[in-house]
């Protein structure tokens, strides 16, 4: 169930977990994905320089394809990120037609 569809006064939510090698696929799957299901209006998700990999990208894909995010920061990931996982994410975004920051 979604508890928050938008924030009052045009506030944008930023989730910044960057520069923390302790952030892993497990943490994204168990904590962040359920959080984003309840409060999907996160506009900026910063996960650069974390230990996330394929499993986190896969788990975040349904939220990303809903088009809430304006910015996704996934550079310099220390986890195992395969080109196949990135391709699957991009194909899912394309199929949904709700690109990040698409107006």
Summarize the structure.
This protein has 103 residues and is an alpha/beta fold.
The share of residues in extended strands comes to 15-25%
Are there runs of 5+ residues with pLDDT below 50, and where? none
The rounded Rg comes to: 13 Å
Alpha carbon gap, first and last residue: 26 Å
Question: How would you summarize the topology of this molecule?
Answer:
Layout: E1 13-16, E2 20-24, H1 25-38, E3 42-46, E4 50-51, H2 54-64, E5 71-73, H3 83-96
Parallel strand pairs: 1-3, 2-4, 3-5
Helix pairs in contact: 1-2, 2-3
Can you describe what's shown?
The chain has 103 residues and is α/β, with parallel strands linked by helices. Helix content is 38%, strand content 18%. It contains three helices and five strands, in the order ββαββαβα. The strands form two sheets. It has a three-stranded parallel β-sheet, with no helix packed on it. A two-stranded parallel ribbon has the order 2-4. The longest helix has 14 residues. The chain is globular and about 30 Å long.
Question: What distinguishing features does this structure have?
Answer:
5 strands, alpha/beta, 103 residues, three-stranded parallel beta sheet, two-stranded parallel sheet, single chain
